[in-house]
Amino acid sequence: MHMRPTLSWTPTEDLPPGTTDPEPVADALRTGGVLVLSGAGISTESGIPDYRGEGGSLSRHTPMTYQDFTASGQARRRYWARSHLGWRTFGRARPNAGHRAVAAFGRHGLLAGVITQNVDGLHQAAGSESVVQLHGSLDRVVCLSCGASSPRRALARRLEAANPGFEPMAAGINPDGDADLTDEQVGDFRVVPCTVCGGILKPDVVFFGEAVPPQRVEHCRRLVREAASLLVLGSSLTVMSGLRFVRQAAQAAKPVLIVNRDPTRGDRHALTRVALPLGTALTTVADRLDIPVDDQEVD
Fold this sequence. Notes:
The protein is α/β, with parallel strands linked by helices. The protein is 34% helix and 14% strand. It contains ten helices and nine strands. It has helices spanning 23-31, 66-71, 73-92, 97-107, 122-125, 152-162, 183-186, 214-226, 240-251, 278-288, and strands at 34-38, 111-116, 131-133, 136-143, 149-151, 201-205, 229-233, 256-259, 272-274. It has a six-stranded parallel sheet, with helices on both faces. A three-stranded antiparallel sheet has the order 5-4-6. Helix 4 (97-107) runs parallel beside helix 10 (278-288) and helix 8 packs parallel to helix 9. It is elongated and about 55 Å long.
């Protein structure tokens, strides 16, 4: 019996109230050397729901764990049926004002880097460079047997060919790219194997219950060490994969600033939490810094 991952967090202490004044964020950016750590909340305005915010998907959806995926052919069928449907929505999602503002701050030399917990690729689509994808990326697929990596687009074409007429209506889409389908809707969806060795294919993302690769964690720790401050955007910091960098920054006496509408597990380490929607807060900050947030997307 394996432990279920931590999916929710309830404040057990009196946390400082959030503010609606983003000036401390503007101050940090004026100083430069800001390391951004982003979570699902920055992508909600692109139509990709949050896990834990208002209407968050965890209220109706338990994300796939690595243990379930590797142990059960039926779990893999359910995952790929739902993910195949969800990928269509993910593939259409465009960066929003929050992603574009982060890219603009980067172009103006104000950032020490961007670490994202998201697997949607929207920071890169907005023009951010050298983004560390802490939990991987949904647009790549990896074989668990031979390690071969391939584009998700190619797998999508193979799954469409193997499942003609698969067009169920989903109840919703989740931040991991899963669509909500019933077992009846999943039916006898056909999963396809690795084209190299016939092995099991998995999206190149870190599932719940799976560890972030150690070299990726160390790279992020180095970014925290080199940064002047840490700016958390749209993350509840419920899972340790992101919270550890907040704790590291706080222990090194580096300012931690959080923009998130709801309280987070990192609030007690933060100089301030700005309780505003990400697009609004970051556009306001960009205006105060006289930085244009253009609508140019990078293909």
